[in-house]
Structures are given as C-alpha cells and as structure tokens.
Amino acid sequence: MTAYKPGDDIRKMIEKYIAGTATEEEMRFVELYYAYSEKNTAPELSEEEKALSHARNFEEIQRQIRTTRSARRSRLWSYKYAAAALLILTAPVAYLSLKKQDKFPGKGPLAIHVNDILPGSNKALLTLADGTKVVLDDKAAGKVIEIPGLTVTKTKNGQLVYTVSGKQAASRKIASNTVATPRGGQYQVILPDGTRVWLNASSSLSYPELFSGNKRTVRLTGEGYFEVAKNKAMPFHVETAAQDVEVTGTHFNINAYMDEPALKTTLLEGSVNVHYSGKTKTLQPGQQSRVFGGSPEINIATVNTEEETAWKNGLFQFSNASLKSILNQVERWYDVKVDYSTVPNKHYNGMVPRSAGLSEVLHMLEVTGNISFKIEKNRELKVITRQGP
Predict the structure, then answer these.
(1) Is residue 45 part of a domain?
(2) DSSP string, 254-322
(3) What is the band of 169 on the pLDDT scale with cuts at 50, 70, 90?
(4) Is the pTM of this model over 0.85?
(5) How much of the chain, in percent, has pLDDT values that exceed 90?
(6) Comparing C-alpha atoms, which of 346, 325, 364, 385 is closest to residue 90?
C-alpha cells in the first residue's frame, strides 16, 4: 500500500476518481478523506489543532484501507458534467469532490429544492444607435444587421460578428452599438477589428460599428474578458466608470461590477496600462490591479489568472472566497435575489460548473458549511445557519 502524507496532491487523486482511472486503493482513500474532512475544519479548533487533526485523519484513513483491502469495490459516483465539481473548505484543507449523483457519502440523497432554477445561458440585447433593439439568444444563426459597409452576423455558437466591407464603409457616419447581458445571461462579441469580448452576466459593452482615428475605444459595465486584436498604431481602450485600460494587443479581464468592493483588471498575456485618478500602472502577465472606492491608489497583486477568468470557461472557481462574494456570483448567474442579512462569515476554495442547476450548487455549499438554503417562489434566496454537526 502507498504511504500517503498530508502534503500529497489529493486533487490529482480526486480527478482520477472522477475520471474512473483511480485504483481501488485511491478510490477508497478519496471516499474516506471525504468522510473525515469535516473533522479537521471544526470552527472551535485552533489552526494547530486543525492541522494535527488533519494529519491524524491521514493515518486513520490508511489504517482503515489496510484492514479493508478485501472489501467491496468502492462505488463510482455517476456524473453529468465533464468538468470536476470540487468544493474545498479552507484552513487547513478539506477536499470534497462532488458530482451530480444519487447520493453524497454520509449525507443522504441530493436535496433538490422545490423552486429549483436553471443556470444562465447565451442571451443579450443589442441596441443600435437609432434605438432599435435586437434580442440575441441561442436561436438560429443568421444576419442581424445588413447595411452598406457593415454586416452583423450571429453565429451558431452564439457569437456576434461585425464584418466591415465595401467602399461605403469609409464614408459611413460611425454609430455606437451596445450589447447588454441580463442576469442569467452571457454573450460573446467579435468587434469590427477582430477583438473578441466575452461578457459575463449583468454586463454591457458599448462600441462603434467601425473603429477610426488614432485609437479604439469601448465602454464596459459589469465584467468582460478581452482578446484584443493587435494594432500598435491604434491602441485599444476599455473605459469603465472609474478607470481607463490601454492596450495594443493582449488578453485581460476586467471586473467592474458596482456591488463588488474593488474594480479589478487581470492580465493574462501582453501588457496593459491602467489609468486611474491621475495615476498610471503597467501590468505584467499574472498581475492584477485593484482600485477600491474612495482610494486614489492602484494596488498591484500577483493572482491566479485561471480563477479570475473561470467564469469565461464555464466555472465558478474560488480561493478563500467569502460566502457573500460567492453568492454575488450566484445572484447574477441564476437571476435570484439573495437575502444577505443572514449570510455567515464562511470562506471556500474550489470549483463548481456554471452548467449546474442552482440546487446542485447550493447543496455543495450546504454539505461543507453547516448551512442550508431556501429558494422562495419570488426567486429570493435565504441562508439558514444550522447548529451542531
């Protein structure tokens, strides 16, 4: 038998478990680790006691594996989603690998809430300069707008593509369009210069039908991920209510939701200049600028870029995130109203697929935090703190 230690990469074992490539010993280890996980995160324990409990659990798990090697083969958890649904309580670490399944170990059947809510989807509203509104959703692809010098097409993948052509394009009066996603919506736009923009829920992007002059400027509210087409002679600018981000060609994410504590710009590739309150900071890949309301400073930090852009890749991903910040995302993606008056101060690490129904996401939070949720008929989400184990 392999001698596992607390520092071993449990995540890899969980991934193998889900993929069906884990050995019987590894499968048993993951199931037992899940069962013991709550013991080393009890709130009344000090950090030293939690760490000691964590190590003792490893020893106990391995002892049980040795004494039950002839036991029945561990059951495989059925699952619907290709991506792992992983929730991990913080400090020290307790890993929970949760899939859509008939039963969670030791927790009974999956509790689907009566008023369950489906996840968001590709949908947005395109508003033209003349006030014309076009609904964009998962319906059939085709031309949305066709005017001299410009064609706007919706692809089968839900993208909005601007194509500039013809001699009349240069003489056209440049008009501004806006794509806005509602709560429970997301959308992807390919701008006339080839720049790709992913919009998260409850966001909007305003941009010209054609870029001209010595710079390309768009305006963002909410959250957007940008892959900017390179053009050094015509820098690309993303304006929000508080800052201006200048680039020539790069990949970055801007989170400018008004209900978040900070305006965050995260750089994945290239270089950007962040202009705010008369100051300028240049970001390098892996860095994030943070602007807090009321402060004139631009704070720079090194971050996990995968976590910051997980929404674009179909995931909620957290690292020591407060329950309130997680529910902010849930509120926007599932179009619900959260009652924050009873939200406890709990923190989580982990990943949950955005394709999961709201009940599944809530259940994953419930089984790791002594809390429960109630979805009211008016789409209001209430948090209930449970007492005891």
Answers:
(1) no
(2) EEE-TTSSEEEEEEEES-EEEEETTEEEEE-TTEEEEEETT----EEEE--HHHHTGGGGTEEEEEEEE
(3) low
(4) no
(5) 36
(6) 346
Q: What are the angstrom distances between the C-alpha of 200 and each of 120, 124, 126, 245, 254?
A: 10, 10, 15, 18, 10
| 150 lies in some domain | yes
Q: Nearest 10 degrees: CA dihedral of 307, 94, 22, 58? A: 150
CB 283 within 8 A of CB 267: yes
If we measure between CA atoms, which residue out of 251, 262, 257 comes closest to residue 289? 262
Task: Report DSSP state, residue 76.
Answer: P
- How far apart (Å, rounded) are the C-alpha atoms in residues 175 and 292? 33
The β-bridge partners of 8 are none
SS3 of the chain: helix, strand, coil, percent, to 5: 20, 35, 40
The alpha carbon of residue 318 and the mean position of all alpha carbons in its chain are separated, in whole angstroms, by 8
Which stretch of 161-165, 250-254, 265-269, 370-374 has the lowest confidence by average pLDDT?
161-165
Residue 143, pLDDT above cutoff 70: yes
**Residue pLDDT, tens place only, 303-318:** 999 889 999 988 888 8
Which domain CATH number covers 125? 2.60.120.1440
**Is residue 345 one of the residues assigned to a domain?**
no
SS (H, E, C) 25-45: HHHHHHHHHHHHHHHHHCCCC
Residue 241: inside a domain: yes
